[in-house]
Amino acid sequence: MTSTPPAQVGAAVDPFTASQRYYWRIALELKLRKSNSDAFQDFFSTVMGLLHGDDFVRVRPYGALGDKGCDGYVQSNGQLFQCYGALAGELKQVATLTTKMRDDFAKALKNLAAIMKEWHMVHNIADGLPVEALTTMNALKEANPSLGFGFVGMEGFSERVFRLQPFQIESLLGPAASDTDATTLDTAALRDLIQHLRSEADAIDFDQQDLRPVPLYKLNYNNLPNHWKQLIAGGWKNAHLVGQYFDRHPDPLTGERIAKLFRDRYEYLKAQLLDPSDIMVSLYELVTGIGSVPPQKQVAAQSLLAFLFENCDIFEREPAAQATP
User: Fold this and answer.
1) pTM > 0.90
2) SS3 of 321, please?
3) Going by DSSP bridges, is the β-strand pair 118-123/79-84 parallel, antiparallel, or unpaired?
4) Residues of the chain with pLDDT under 70
5) How many helices (H) and strands (E) does the chain have?
6) Contacts for 297 with CB less than 8 Å, ≥ 6 apart
């Protein structure tokens, strides 16, 4: 007879709900994409200060003295950080990044070798680093085998942010809808979003929509990052309420016009060869606007995007032959 093992004593309890995790992960991605240059460095320093307290030293240049190739430093382990905040999280010139890496490391090695045990390049490049960045970092490692090296990007930020307390994350990224918030749809918040979209949607001609049932594996087929998959999947429980709202709207064409607006925007973004995460960011901000999004508006936006995704107005349905049973 097999018995069920007792629960692990002292097992860590996740302080965040599922909704908080994906809402804050999306808010973090939007924040990093919008922060560049000094604003990006300041945000990184704020996160590190909350995480490490006085063990982290925020550094800034003082006139002609400069920063000696250091934007931040953890005293206990000798980690030195240099920041590169790209405009809109997009790398325009690979050489700009690789040259900055070599130059900044050379300055740090010249001026701060006595205290530097590790050197890390912090960036907000959302689509992934070019291979040239990896080879540049590897060359630095080979030339300086006594030092540790690494990158801190989107996932590195996420890992550090989710080591903070919920109230600290809220101070950085604003409130996140709770699981309770996500179970209900605020009709007034949805109405406000629809009114926000009407001015653009009313100017667009629309054609007949594809109303075939949404394929079960559409989320995987479109290679959406996990936090966006979770957002869409979490909104399906309210998607039918969005449909009911459109059905009852005084203007019977509102739903079709907004669906066409989103489909056209999706096709425009896809034609620029943007990856799924970039496209989802643009579609999300089309709904919410730019800036802090309160919980009721988060849930309404999630529900609307889930409705559009479910009805195949945005992203691609996989060919029937490719659908996994």
Assistant:
1) no
2) helix
3) parallel
4) 1-12, 61-67, 202-217, 219, 312-313, 317-325
5) 13, 5
6) 189, 192, 193, 288
